[in-house]
Amino acid sequence: MNTIRILLWVILVYYIALHAIYLLLLLIGSLQVRRYNRAITFAEFRRIGESRLSMPVSLIIPCFNEATIICSTIRNILRLTYPQFEVIVVSDGSTDGTMEILAESFKLRRVDRFGRRYIGTEQIRSVHESPDYPNLVVVDKVNGRRADAINAGVAMARYPLLCVIDADCLLEPDALLHMARPFLRDSRVAAVAGVVRPSNGLAVVDGEIVSKGFPRSLIGLNQEVEYARSFQWARIGLSRLRSMLCISGALILIRKHLFEKIGGPWPDAITDDIEFTMRLNRHIHDRRNKEDQKLVFVPDAVCYTEIPEKISQYASQRNRWQRGTLQALWRNRGMIFNPRYGMTGLFGMPFFLIFEGLAAIVELSAWILMAVCLVLGIATGFEIIGMIFLAYILGVFLSLSAVLITESGRLRSATWRDFWRLILAILIDNIGFHQFHLLCRVVGTVEYFFGRRDLGRQMERIGNNHPHHEAHPTPAT
Amino acid sequence: MNLLTIVLYTAGILTLLSILLLGVTIALRIDTDRRLRREAAFRSHAKPILRSFLSGEATLEMTRAVLGKDPHAAIRVLLEESDTLGEKGREKLLPLLSGMPVGQKMLDRLRSRSWEKRLRSAEYLGYLGDDTSLPALMTALRDEVLAVRFAAATSLARLGCHDAVEPILQALDAPGEVSQRRVAEVIQILGARASDPILVILQRPTANETSLGIAARVAGSLRLHRAIDPLRHLLGHESPNVRLNAVRSLASIGDHSVSAAIAALGEDPSWEVRSSVMQALGRLAAGGQIPLLLQGLSDQEWWVRLNAAEALHALGDPGITALRDATDHHVDAYGRDMSRQILQQHGILQPTLQTNL
């Protein structure tokens, strides 16, 4: 009986600590967003866009069997407002006709192009350029996972900044301007991360986002809330605390020399972006390296990515993310509670381990414990309901805070209808959806410990290239 | 108080807070919607009358009356218009501004304790100010916040204050290539008015390496022929950054007589310098330097090889012939590959897809 009581207290303390940190991140995040917005000067982005001195960027798009969406993504990227950039698409041994579609759409011609290869990759079969788009390069290589494709793209890159995005991503036209700004203001900036939002619900014509909206399905809306929470205050708060240990692979801008120095993403990683971000933190925050560099989060550089709207795909994705998180933590375990990495080692890594990596196990234990308490009569039904309601309302409060921050910026929901749908999603997020998410993560944890290291099945793409999509127009903000 | 009571109290407080948060979010949304509508309506009214004023159709009083309805929105409209019109057009807006309390307010804000207010006013004065704001902006160059100093420097340049070149260089002496680029860009706003101060810096033996690097960069951007001799002298400077900028600037100015002096840096210890030497030789059409460029094809640094091959191509027939020859006979495999790549990129050679490596 005493053991159960102790366990109950441990879990309660865990929850209190977790939510106290969340509230701290919320506070820091909202202050940082406010500070960021107030420091932007008039016509600043236009000046960066017009300047001949803005640092040129190589955008790398790794893709594997993305024939349905890749052309739309490339057209979207080619529309970016930025003085000088090149787009390097790397087909990672696609077998669905991706290369043929690209060749036809962009009139590709084969060329001999030999990049500077600092990082070894699988064999590059051929390199192609487009006479219509001089800044487009397409690389066809033998399959070797996403990280390997990125490294092959980096070998072909010519510019000092690298921007890696996923094949299903769509960027706001000014996203690069916003992401390049920190590099122009502070020479210590090593990499910049931006906001990622679900693209399901956008209407895209020929690569251009013509109207915005939220996903239609409930599972999609729940993920909209989740992304808002993660990107509107959590990341910016963590970046302030030198603890942004997960930069989404969907959007990162990084100095090329640094990327090469730390060896690029690890091809065997389950989630290469998490592992790469941890290694990046490890390099720049290691006092022995004396790098004095920093990672920055930009709250208004927006990238849209396709989220799974089928339960099976969602489960597979979250399972992979959980296994990837555990793998990355294990590979970089030397950082945990290590004062050599400063705040990252003493706060960021332990936070990531305890409240991300092990969160699913702790939460599952809490549910089991509550049931045991109920059965053994240690707690009454009323007490259990009280605890569950507290967890529920904490989740609602944090999600509403994210919405408040979102609504005060340019990412505000397009219509009142979307706004109320989002509120509804927040209210029902903790009734079923959250528990299903927990289940996926528990399965992922168990499978990781049983040695599963594959990438799971690839997500089926729907794409947004539907001119008649019934999304709602966005008012100017 | 037992655990359950604490839990229930906390949950109750959080429920109330959540309801409050929702209320605030809705209020914010309504307010934002209203503000956007109001601003759109003001703009649709103010922009045409401002254009009429600039073309002489609307009177000063009429325009002031319209802009005075929403001073905050009016400032943004005026800033945009000032930005579009450029330096000469900006003067046309001054009568409008003199009647508004904007100018004095901005000067006062330049002394505010909030760095954000100082930043905003330093920036606005560049668009809306006149010569009377120059002393205050010069003082702002000593602000403790770098962003404010940058904004003040940009405004001084925008207002055509050529005396500010040296103070700007002193105020923005930040390390790093990008910072120096930004400073150079600020000074370039002054155009030809920056020439004399830049020459003075280039010829001063005591000038520090950052100032020299920036001055060299600006001299190149302005194509300052009078700077050729001092720049040639800087090719022997101990700092790679200064040598790099001197090479780039001499190439931008385009005087062919400096080719030999630039080529002498073909084996510089810094690869960035070697790379820019190759580029410069191409831009200066230095046909006599083909042997050096062929040597550059086998440099250990990829960028030097690329720029050497590009430079050979830029030389026209003799360079292309040398490149063609290099695809088969260059002593270095990397040099052969790079030659082939560049010839293909320019459509001179068909792809073979066989690497020499």
Description:
The complex is a heterodimer of chains A (477) and B (357). Chain A has a ten-stranded mixed sheet, with helices on both faces. In chain A, strands 9-10 form a two-stranded antiparallel ribbon. Mean pLDDT of chain A is 89; it is low at 466-477. Chain A has helices spanning 2-39, 44-50, 70-78, 98-106, 145-156, 175-185, 218-240, 256-261, 272-285, 311-331, 342-357, 359-376, 381-407, 416-449; strands at residues 57-63, 85-92, 109-111, 124-129, 136-141, 161-165, 170-171, 189-198, 203-205, 208-211, 251-255, 294-305. Chain A is 51% helix and 15% strand. Chain A has one domain (18-352): Spore Coat Polysaccharide Biosynthesis Protein SpsA, Chain A, CATH 3.90.550. Chain A is globular. Chain A is an alpha/beta fold and 477 residues long. Chain B is mainly alpha-helical. Among the domains of chain B are: 68-159, Leucine-rich Repeat Variant (Alpha Horseshoe); 266-347, Leucine-rich Repeat Variant, CATH 1.25.10.10. The radius of gyration of chain B is 29 Å and the shape is extended. The model of chain B is unreliable at 353-357 (pLDDT under 50). At the A-B interface, helix 1, strand 3, helix 6, helix 13 and helix 14 of A face helix 1, helix 3, helix 5, helix 9 and helix 17 of B.
Protein structure class of chain A = alpha/beta
Main sheet: strands, sense, barrel of chain A: 10 strands, mixed
* CATH fold-level topology of chain A: Spore Coat Polysaccharide Biosynthesis Protein SpsA, Chain A
What is the architecture of the domain at 68-159 in chain B at the second tier of CATH?
Alpha Horseshoe
What oligomeric state do the depicted chains represent? heterodimer
Biggest pleated sheet of chain B: none
**Helix residue percentage of chain A:** 40-55%
- What gross morphology of chain A would you assign? globular
What is the topological layout?
The complex is a heterodimer of chains A (477) and B (357).
Chain A: H1 2-39, H2 44-50, E1 57-63, H3 70-78, E2 85-92, H4 98-106, E3 109-111, E4 124-129, E5 136-141, H5 145-156, E6 161-165, E7 170-171, H6 175-185, E8 189-198, E9 203-205, E10 208-211, H7 218-240, E11 251-255, H8 256-261, H9 272-285, E12 294-305, H10 311-331, H11 342-357, H12 359-376, H13 381-407, H14 416-449
Parallel strand pairs in A: 1-2, 1-6, 2-5, 8-12
Antiparallel strand pairs in A: 3-4, 4-5, 6-11, 7-12, 8-11, 9-10
Chain B: H1 3-54, H2 60-67, H3 71-98, H4 102-109, H5 115-128, H6 134-140, H7 146-158, H8 165-171, H9 177-188, H10 195-203, H11 209-221, H12 228-234, H13 240-253, H14 259-263, H15 271-283, H16 290-296, H17 302-314, H18 317-329, H19 333-345
Helix pairs in contact in B: 1-2, 1-3, 2-3, 4-5, 5-7, 6-7, 7-9, 9-11, 10-11, 11-13, 12-13, 13-15, 15-17, 16-17, 17-18, 17-19, 18-19
